[in-house]
Amino acid sequence: MTKLFFLLSGEHPTLPFAELRAVLRAEGFRRKTVGELQQLMRVEADVESVKSIVHRAALTRICNIEITYCEAVAEEVLERVRSAPLEDFLKKGETFVVRVRRVRKTAPQLVGGELERRLGAVLLHRVKGAKVRLTSPDKTFFGVLTDNKFVFGLKLAEVSPKPFVERRPRKRPFFHPSAMPAKLARCMVNLAQPKAGELVLDPFCGTASLLIEAGLIGCRVIGFDAQRRMVRGSLRNLVYYDVQPDGLVVADAQNLPVSNVDCIVTDPPYGRSATTLGRETGQLVKDFLSKIDGCLQQGRRVCIASPKSINISKLGGELGFKHVESHSVYVHRSLTREIAVLEQT
Question: Binning pLDDT at 50, 70 and 90, where does residue 277 land?
């Protein structure tokens, strides 16, 4: 295994870490968490895992091989880099650039541009024949200042947020104001840990936000909704993103016409713009969870979003599920979502 570090999105304090762990587990990579800092996770894992993270993750930004880790003190940083095996990462004749990212104003005594220049000078001194190139270099060396620590390594890949922006709800052929943003939908799919080719169910599919993201990472998808117009809209959106569902059915989640799926990812209706067919959201969620026993094998997961007031983690436990984790996501003054992961026992 190789020491890796990942710069994570800063838009939520816990979801990026949980998603990264979930992707590694879903893809079957052995991993050991070395440490977690603000917006940064250090792990030991197969370097091939980076390909899966780039393909699947929504809240990871930059993936790197770790070269050194130390206190965010200029002389210690330079000494650690000088003593690192730089020749293993940069060869004679190759071009490179050094970039340093600061997280949340940490280590203000260090000037990023100056640190980049001094680290570049170390690399030039150690690797004869290497050259600096600021645009399109052969190698990018990447450092992160966070929690008064400095992590330095070789950049392997970057996850662009642009595709998720392009899939935002208003960009889709069929729009509804309750639709979930693409990044959060992808994150929820990853928390449920399906593998490519496995069957993902959303019993409240709405505009197909979750099914689109599951389909784009190679999963088979099936969706139900009690409203015919939502099912038709879901199909329009899935076709637009070239995702072919195994099935889309007008059905009540209390009477699921399916006997076996690999995981469930869902965002049941709530709020003014959603239709719950006259039932309270809490009762709707309770009825749904009480009906899925037998649909999932032991150890497989349900990732569900619901208003925090429902306390889905407690409700899931009362219905026989193991509560794995929960994350609070603020939406607006009157709504905070709980993203909960439950496991079939």
Answer: low
pLDDT at 272: 46
Task: Find the DSSP H helices in 83-174.
Answer: 112-126, 162-166
Looking at residues 153-168, what average pLDDT do you find? 96
- What the block records as the tokens of 70 is 């130390």
- Sign of the CA dihedral 49, 322, 339, 214? positive
**What span, in angstroms and rounded, lies between the C-alpha atoms of 107 and 341?**
36
Q: What is the pLDDT of residues 205-228, one digit of tens each?
A: 999 999 999 999 999 999 999 999
Look up the CATH number of the domain holding residue 205.
3.40.50.150
Q: Enumerate residues 6+ apart whose C-beta is below 8 A from 166.
A: none
Considering only CA atoms, which of 181, 74, 164, 56 is closest in space to residue 119? 74
Containing 210, the helix (H) or strand (E) segment is helix 209-216
Residue 191 and residue 76: Cα distance in Å, rounded?
38
Looking at the fold, whether 191 and 249 belong to one and the same domain comes out as: yes
Mean of the per-residue pLDDT values of the chain: 94
Q: Where do the DSSP E strands lie in 72-219? A: 95-102, 131-132, 139-146, 149-158, 199-202
194 and 154, same structural domain?
no
pLDDT at 303 over 80: yes
One domain for residues 7 and 97? yes
Q: Please determine, for residue 11, whether its predicted confidence score (pLDDT) is greater than 70.
A: yes
